[in-house]
Amino acid sequence: MSESPLLSYIVLSYNYERYIGKTLQSILDQTVQDFEIVVVDDGSIDNSVAIVSAMADPRIRLFVNEKNIGGAASYNRAVQEARGEWLVNLDADDWIDPRKAEIQLQAVSDDPRLDIIGSYVAFYDENDLPHPSADALEQSVNQPHDLNLVDTWIGANYLCRSSTMVRASAHRRIGLDDPAMVRAPDYELWTRALRLGCRFTVVPERLTFMRLHSRGVTHADPIGTLLEMGYAMQRNLVPLAEARSLFPSITRIVGWVGRHASLSRLRPLQAHRLIGSFMQSTPVADFPQFVALLNDASAHPELTGIGQRSLTFIGPGADAYLEVGKLLDDIKAYTEARDYFRKESEGWERRYAELAQAHHEQSQAFAEALKRGRGLRSIPRRVLSRLIRILKK
Amino acid sequence: MNPPRILALLPFLAKGALSIEIFRALRARGVEITVAFCRDESTALEPDAMEDFKATSDLIDLSTMGTGPKRLQLIQDLIVHRKIDLVLQVGAVELYHLLPYWKERLPDLRIADILYNEFGHTLNHFLYEGCIDAVIVESDYMRDFVRRSSGQPDRRIEVVHSGVDLSDFSPADGDGRDGSRLKVGYVGRMSDEKNPIGFIELAERLGRLNPALDFEMFGSGPDAALVEGRIARSEMASRLKYHGFVEHSRDALRQLDVLILPSKFDGRPVTLMEANACGVPVIAAAVGGVPELVSEGVNGFLIPPVETERIHGQLSQWQAHLPSLEALKLSARAYAMQYFDREKMIEAYADAFSKVAAGS
């Protein structure tokens, strides 16, 4: 086994005995074989460790945490143990196409500036069947999102970690995951990478197969997710937007958080200060310090008022909102008027068609009568009197 | 002291809404109340047309009044024309930002905000609280929350404990029980915060431990399809029935031996009070204002839905000694009569509105 392989696969294992064999086998089946597999088991209580140990390939390096330390800390351990030029992420319940590494390396060869390469993904359920919502999910993720733009990252993460290959030197430069984060450490890492100048791309082929479980970590705690994403945006996206003079993007960040359904689930003080934190550059070292800043009214006390003032710019009282409201009212009125006149017009058209038809029939009857040479007397009295009425009109 | 003339601001008109019930009851006592509402939500909620208010021109549909300065002026004219003493904000999110402008123009006007729980529009409350004279809440829990969260010195808070109609919600005749089999139920909105999925998971665990339990679920809401699908896949499907929307919650509650309230967060849940009024004890999660409503062993127990063993123990105890369950049912009804009386609630609201309007 090489001491400095081209690729270091990072597989975080936690109670996925049912899936991890397939995950590792999909790595062993890759067309690019210069790799090591760093498996960090975070204290599984099932047979995961035994399954990994039983796979007799010297390239598999298993590290078992003495106690459960969480996903972010396990990831950091794996990054520190990895010796490859590229770090390739793959969660222990997902699997990959045999040509994934080859295709992603080709992308690097085409553009050597790249640091982080993802791929399109396909979603499966617990039983290896396409997930019932796969179409809708894939339609959202598998799009040509440009991950090098700030706006792409506002409130959204289109880069699935399991699909990524990260240049190890770039990863060392941007640093590790924040171990205190549970819901959105990837999002924070990617936005930090963006701030620190990393270049992204996503290979537009479904090379990663991700398993969706009925209740994922992210959706189980919308408040935690909002706070962690808020932290990542405050720390990474806002300064980058400012550095690039993308000030409207900052208003979009405030808008996204300000209209977020879970904002009202925070304590009012926390919610106001969260908004305030986007509007004032307050340096924070890590996520716990960010949360402490939101909770402590006496630390940077101005944040509360700044947040309150900023919220009104995106609330129902803001002029822009009122103008949109008026516009919507007007559109509604115009639409109603349009529908009314369309209906009337259709009625008129129908009546005209009926009259035209009647007129046509009578003309024909008249012509027939003339042709037979019997003159007006041959026309039925009823038709004749109607014809006279029309002619009088 | 004459009762104040009130303008109540509602987001929409939902049938069975507590606020509408209160306004009707106060109107019957001669209080002049105008109700203004912002939008039509009849596609999502059963509407209350409020024909009684409409008949006397006391119902105002704001959706026809535009959204801009025109609305501000029209409502202000209404306040002046009707000599309104007290504006009651009852969750009309779209109107919060107008409150300070009315207050600026009409300094003698009193404004009170009724807050039922900590979430949703309460964030707007704290943004505009500077122009609000008083907050009316239903529980001590909410009083403490407002006190803690407010930036106003000496924030005025009136606590009015809500209640239910004790003659409408009354126990069923006879227990109709099949031996020692117990009916364990969920009655309420099918939405995440009420945690119907938590109830299903509990039912599955309890069902495995205790074959003499049946489970019933009643109610509709955004998660109804999710609930239906989850039950269809459940091992307990044969003993867990989902009945969907019920016209009157009393009819659902009367079928139960015990109500489970597994909410993730809650204010002062009406279902709990209705259950007790129907003589049904509760096993409830101790969230929000719920602990104020439950006296252990008198009208129910505070047990989180994940503590299966404790709930199982309690149910088994009743099955082994049915008279103890019957005694608890009587005690739950008695508790409701003492603490959840709607008449007392109406009195208390009338009193609170008068005091706030008078600035006393």
Can you walk through the features of this model?
The complex is a heterodimer of chains A (393) and B (360). Chain A is of the alpha/beta class and 393 residues long. In chain A, 51% of the residues lie in helices and 12% in strands. Chain A is built from 15 helices and eight strands. In chain A, helix 9 runs antiparallel to helix 10 (247-258) and helix 14 packs across helix 15 (381-392). The longest helix of chain A is centred in the last third of the chain and has 53 residues, at 319-371. Chain B is of the alpha/beta class. Chain B has helices at residues 18-28, 51-55, 69-81, 99-105, 122-128, 140-149, 196-209, 224-232, 249-253, 270-277, 290-293, 308-320, 322-339, 342-358; strands at 6-10, 33-37, 59-61, 86-89, 110-115, 134-137, 157-159, 182-187, 213-218, 240-242, 258-261, 282-284, 300-302. The longest helix of chain B has 18 residues, at 322-339. Classes of the chains: A alpha/beta (393), B alpha/beta (360). At the A-B interface, helix 11, helix 13 and helix 14 of A face helix 5 of B.
Can you give keywords for this protein?
heterodimer, A: 393 residues, alpha/beta, Spore Coat Polysaccharide Biosynthesis Protein SpsA, Chain A, 3 domains, 8-stranded mixed beta sheet, elongated, B: 360 residues, Rossmann fold, 2 domains, 7-stranded parallel beta sheet, 6-stranded parallel beta sheet, 14 helices
Low-pLDDT windows of residues of chain A: 215-219
How many angstroms does the end-to-end distance of chain A come to? 103 Å
Instruction: Report the oligomer.
Output: heterodimer
Extract low-pLDDT stretches of chain B.
none
CATH class of the largest domain in chain B: Alpha Beta
Q: Secondary-structure element sequence of chain A?
A: EHEHEHEEHEHEHHEHHHHHHHH
